[in-house]
Amino acid sequence: MAVSVVMPALEMAQETGKLVSWLKKDGEQVKKGDMLLEVETDKAVVEIEAQTDGVLGGITAKVGDVVPVGQTSAWLLKPGESVPQQSAPTQTGRTGAASAPASAPAGASAGQAHAESASAAGARISPKARKLAREHGVDIAKIKGSGPGGEILADDILKAATSAPAPIAPIAPTGGSAIAPTSGSSVAPDSISSIGRIMAERTTQSWTTVPHFFVSRDVDASSLNAARTSLVPVIEKSHGVKVTHTDLLVAAVARALRQHPRMNASWANGSITLNPDVNVALAMAVENAVITAVIRGADKAALGDIAKQRSQLAERARANRLQPADIAGATFTISNLGMFSVDAFTAIIVPPQAGILAVGAIADRVVAVDGMIGVRPMVNLTLSSDHRLIDGASAARFLNDVVVAIGEAGKFS
Q1: Cβ neighbours around 247 below 10 Å, total
Q2: E-assigned strands of 221-279?
Q3: Cβ atoms of 234 and 228 closer than 8 Å
Q4: How would you classify the pairing of strands 289-295 and 280-286?
Q5: Which residues face 39 on adjacent strands?
Q6: Would you call 231 exposed, middle or buried from its count of C-beta atoms within 10 A (0-12, 13-18, 19+)?
Q7: How far apart are alpha carbons 350 and 165 in whole angstroms?
């Protein structure tokens, strides 16, 4: 029996997904578990795997199409099967820019049109390389890939971009407003990815509809530093990764969430849902956007397992190869900007979650220690909470338990 390949719902409130590429060709044999296509949501570009064996056929969605969740984009057919008849034409939500290279919008570069054409034809090219080709206007049809099986890699695109002649700056339309370029420079509009655009819409919606309030603490990070120093060799030996401050914070927050089910709850359709699992998402910066990758069962996971999950998620995020399970089901989020030397900040809640913890840099500061002046490594923690789920006192108690757990970080195992 033919099995439909539909646009999956990778997150709550998702209505559509953008088809980035088909990883298998029409008519190609597919095995269950093979990566079939790449889909872009507001959080990440993720790979979707085949749910059964079969031959890929009846593809209706093209690269660049914005497809409604649940809509059939292709079929996996058994030997001798034909593509099922559709009762009505498939509506892909396709934009004019994505319908076909020949109908690319005015002003699109030839390199971008070639990149779309080659991608649609099934060229072997990594997602990062494809994105770079579009940004730099590189014609991937003229590039010989250096990767396995001739796959075009990001380095191939960058080499081609640096060796190609500089593009001519676009001319502003007559009568339109334009910023006058300074001598020796050109002005081009800034670009925003689909992920960035949807993220902007979601954060705007959160900020304007979720009643945020904030509680903040400056915390002595001495125990956090000591725990990391002592546990790095242990975790590296047992799991092959280096434990970070973020890993320790995930463990501390997960333990506190276990004691505060309302902070681990969700608000949707005017009601509260208590989530049975503690899944902590980490905000990760990728090119032109921020995604959140999820560490599942963080309250029950050993520190080494948390470190390994975080390392693998970060690697897949950098390569644009996150899986659907990597970004779905988060119950709380941590955003750590300490590595950028940010002292303190407030973060916007990711609905339907109850809160998000913003973490600043660990830095030596002059503080009072037992009535005397001393220097301690301090870190600022700022908790953003949804007032529909959490009141001020409850948020303060939760943050206090996070601080207590941080003080016991040396006992994490």
Answers
A1: 28
A2: 266-268, 271-273
A3: no
A4: antiparallel
A5: 19, 46
A6: buried
A7: 43
> Can you list the alpha helix ranges (DSSP code H) found in 319-391?
324-327
How does pLDDT run along the chain (413 residues), one tens digit per residue?
788 888 887 665 567 788 888 988 888 898 888 888 888 776 667 888 888 888 998 898 888 888 888 888 888 988 878 888 764 434 333 333 333 333 333 333 444 444 444 443 445 676 667 766 766 677 777 787 776 567 787 667 767 766 654 443 333 333 333 334 444 444 445 555 666 677 787 888 899 999 999 999 999 999 999 999 999 999 999 999 999 999 999 999 999 999 999 999 999 888 999 999 999 999 988 776 788 899 999 999 999 999 999 999 999 888 878 888 898 899 999 999 999 999 999 999 999 999 999 999 999 999 999 999 999 999 999 999 999 999 999 999 999 999 999 999 988 87
Catalytic residues: 387, 391
Residue 162, helix vs strand vs coil = helix
Find where tokens 């599942």 sit.
Answer: 296
Handedness of CA 110, 114, 120, 124 (dihedral sign): negative
Radius of gyration (C-alpha) of the chain in whole angstroms: 24
Prediction pTM value: 0.62
Compute the 3-state secondary structure of the chain and give helix, strand, coil in percent, each to the nearest 5: 30, 25, 45
Tokens of 357: 């913890």
Tokens read off for 234:
């242990």
Distance CA 264, CA 278 (A): 7
